[in-house]
Amino acid sequence: MSQPSPPAPHDGQLDAVAEKLRLIRITSQQRRYPGRATPRLPSRPAVIRLMSNVVGALYPRHYGPAGLDAQLADTFVAQTLRSVRQRLSDQLELEWLLQPDDEQLACRRRARAAADAFLAGLPQIRDLHDTDINAAFQGDPSARSLDEIVLCFPGIAAILRHRIAHSLYGLGAPMLARIMAEHSHSQSGIDIHPGAKIGPACFIDHGTGVVIGETAVIGRNVRIYQQVTLGAKRFESDGEGGLVKGRPRHPLVGDDVVIYAGATILGRIEIGKGAIIGGGVWLTDSVPPGAVVTQAKPSLNGTTT
Hints:
By secondary structure, the chain is of the alpha/beta class. The protein folds into 2 domains: 41-189, serine acetyltransferase, domain 1 (Orthogonal Bundle), CATH 1.10.3130; 209-305, UDP N-Acetylglucosamine Acyltransferase, domain 1, CATH 2.160.10. The chain is built from 9 helices and 16 strands. The chain has helices at 11-32, 44-58, 60-63, 70-96, 104-120, 122-139, 146-152, 154-170, 174-188, and strands at 191-192, 197-198, 203-204, 211-212, 217-218, 223-224, 229-231, 252-253, 258-259, 264-266, 270-271, 276-277, 282-283, 292-293, 299-300, 303-304. The strands form 4 sheets. A 5-stranded parallel sheet has the order 1-4-7-10-13. A hairpin with a 2-residue loop joins strand 15 and strand 16. The radius of gyration is 24 Å and the shape is globular. The protein starts with 10 loop residues before the first helix and ends with a strand. It is an enzyme of class 2 (transferase). Keywords: Acyltransferase, Amino-acid biosynthesis, Transferase. It comes from Paracoccus siganidrum. This is serine O-acetyltransferase.
């Protein structure tokens, strides 16, 4: 027998709940921003829209409005860049105003300069990502065309959004970059920290469950399959027990490396050029160039298969 629904709270009860939440909120804000007014935060929806707009400007035929011919595509890209410039500057300013010593006018000037620098770097991002698309076409026999790869492959979508977020990360906007990265993660199932450095012609095939940590460095022409982790082996702590931030702690992956599904590679170790890491391998030591690392062969009733 089902339980009866609890009575709906009346307005007085809701007012009391709202007041309790207000007091908790004030206490939290005073702890985070002692001695100053609570600053505004960057808008997550606005930042996600910016990322979508930038993707559309980079690939207008694929991610822009339907029916764009060459002339309309040029107009769309120009208009999009102008719109992105101001809105990105606004969000950058909000991120930097979170720092207690930053002055608003200085933040505004810095934000405008950073927005211009970001937009100036978009041709390089496009060129770099085209190498990723070509790598996917060369590496996946199921790929029928480059257009199919751009429109359909989650690994390619994730790398493009990573390259956008990584540019902002390099300009000193880790919060905006992280918003973009985590939204991409939610869409693709591929978790790439915006601080990770990824070289040209990277192909993440299938991709679900891939994790690439903040200080990972990936070389040229690297192929990564699903469920691969490039993670930290341990976290250093300071004298008071807090975690030390920003130390290099993730793998260095050389050029032409292939990492098969389910491999876990931990710590600041080096995977040499041309190495192959087999599926399901757990690796915490460096690997020389050209090495092939696999699990022990499985056995059936005590007999190796």
